[in-house]
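Model the whole thing, not chain by chain.
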Amino acid sequence: MGTWLQEPLTWTNFAIFLAWGVVFLFIVLGFVTYAIYFERKVIGWMQLRIGPNRVGPLGLFQTLADIFKLLIKEDTIPRKADRWLFILAPVITYVPSFAVLVVIPYTDSLYFTDLNVGLLYYGALSCISTIGIILAGWASNNKYSLLGGMRSAAQMISYEIPLVISVVGVILLNGSLSLRTIVNGQGDYFWQWNFLPQIIGFVVFIIAAVSELNRTPFDLPEAESELVAGYHVEYSGFRFAFFMLAEYVYVFAIASLTTVLFLGGWHAPFPFLTFIPGIIWFILKFMFCVFFLFWLRATMPRIRVDQLMSFGWKVLLPLSLINVFVTAIYVELFIK
Amino acid sequence: MFDFSFQLTGEYVAFFILAVCIIAGAVLMISFNKVIHMVVSLAFAFIGLAGMYVLLNAEFLAFVQVLIYAGAISILMIFGIMMTKHDQVDEDVRRPWHEGIVAVGCLALFGILFYAIRSTTFPTANWTPPKDNTLEIGKLLYTEHVIPFELMSVLLTVAFIGAIVLAKREAD
């Protein structure tokens, strides 16, 4: 990948880039399809149910059937809604979610771009999705969706701050914002990966990331019992599908980011295991992160609104600041 | 002065697309009637501006622009609009001679800018951007410009604490 990126932009190269983009889009769509199936199955087993098992062998085609249902559904736009914003909001939400995947390095040679501000790029673009969500809540002209949109925006902004500050420790240790350099800076043994030296940052990052994804136990924006469904109450058909898609693409992005920042990316846990290719290790760690998110969802109850905000500002933010402080002292004393 | 010859490279194409984004965002911002539509078009113009920074090899500035302006400030404005009377629509006030005067003023401004830009000779030094300019920004910020940086952080902390104090007093 790296050598192509240096070449001039001719029509052939453009076609190659486009083809890679399309291939990657289909990989992500495939991931989303089976992540939903897997989520339903795993949570089903954890709650002593069976989960989807009717459509296809072992229910493997269940999500495909669901997607097909969403695509052929009638597309309704409420009469009192702000028509253009209503149409635009799913697009604003989805586009950044796919665009953030550009900076993630999958193996040493398989990556789409090596921006020297990779981490900042991720943070900046995921902020734009919040605008899409809040606009969806507003444009529907419905009080439940407006409340859902407001909650979601407030939550995403409050947790964006500890999320970004918790990775400052990793940046300090590696001296770079480029995700590829960060992976290369992590050692060959698993205790040299960032999750042990940066244990406080890691825990804060995981909690803030789950909240950023609006997933249980932080799924207040879509609290079914209070808000019907949150910011997408009025959406149906493929517009609704776009919101769900954006949510699961962010699951993909956060799981990859956790792997890259804290779990050593494509490195094997011990040097004698390096005969297994890096992509396998990446996928294994990535799948563990995704499984962890589902596991949390099956285990935890939803937390209360007032607890959510005070937890973010009074616990996570000071913890992440302490982490930055301690890491800075460590770097100054031992590494410099 | 009116010699506009240039080579059609990828950079030029990107520049013109981004310029169209910025201008379209700005024009729509002024011509929309609903406040929330204005904020969305403003965010669009901000993103175009960030693209311009990328073209100028200033990636750090570009993504800070997206994070702060397109993200945070737009969301803040949307929040502000929702808290206030958001159904209000600008009334169209017709003042014919105003438009004429404004048009003349705009043309004059354009003329002056065009003349100034076209008659300036820009220095064409062979400058190569540093390999990791984010690193360079960080180094400069903490060595040469450390005092303005610290002053800014004190100012922001004061503003932050002030906001908390004011909000607390209102709550009591």
